[in-house]
Each structure stands twice: as structure tokens, then as C-alpha cells.
Design brief:
By secondary structure, the protein is an all-alpha fold. The protein has one domain (about 1-95). It has helices at about 1-75, 75-95. The longest helix has about 70 residues, at about 1-75. The radius of gyration is 36 Å and the shape is rod-shaped. It starts with a helix and ends with a helix. The mean pLDDT is about 80.
């Protein structure tokens, strides 16, 4: 009769171990999920800062280019007018085809 009692104790111990394992796995999944969320937030923050920096740099480059074109047009207005007329003419021909 001692044998069924040992089996019952073994099953009870196995149930306790499985419950503990289930709890540990649940905690691990929550920890991984939280870590993944934090990593995603950090990556989003870095990409947002990078995009803002890129836009700022491109805006500054655009301003420098506009100033350079303005200076060039100021120095050579006749050539700038001829270029504008040529671009307009060919643009209109391409548009109406």
C-alpha cells in the first residue's frame, strides 16, 4: 500500500512543478514582451530624431542652394532669362504632346 501513496506524492510534486514552470514561463513571456516594447520605443525615438535631423539638414541645404542660385541670377540675369525661357518652351512642348 505504500506504493500508491508514493505515486500520489510524485503526481502532486509533478503538478506543483508544472504549476511553477507555467508561472515562470508566463513571467518570462511578460519580461520578453516588455523588453521588446522598450526596444521598439527606443528604435522609434532614434529614427524620429534621425528623420528630424535629416529634414533640418535638407532644409538648410535648400536654403544655401536658393541663395547660390539667387547670386548667380543676380550676376548673369540675361543668361538666367534665356535658360528659363528654354526650359519653359521645352516643358510646354512636352506637356502638350
Amino acid at each position: 500500500m505504500a506504493e500508491p501513496n508514493n505515486a500520489d506524492m510524485d503526481l502532486a510534486a509533478l503538478r506543483d512543478d508544472l504549476a511553477t514552470l507555467k508561472h515562470d514561463v508566463s513571467n518570462l513571456i511578460e519580461h520578453i514582451k516588455g523588453g521588446a516594447t522598450d526596444k521598439a520605443r527606443n528604435a522609434a525615438g532614434r529614427s524620429d530624431r534621425g528623420a528630424r535631423g535629416f529634414c533640418h539638414d535638407m532644409g538648410a541645404q535648400g536654403e544655401r542652394s536658393a541663395k547660390a542660385v539667387g547670386l548667380w541670377v543676380g550676376k548673369q540675369p540675361a543668361l538666367a532669362l534665356l535658360i528659363a525661357l528654354g526650359v519653359g518652351y521645352f516643358g510646354a512642348r512636352a506637356f502638350f504632346r
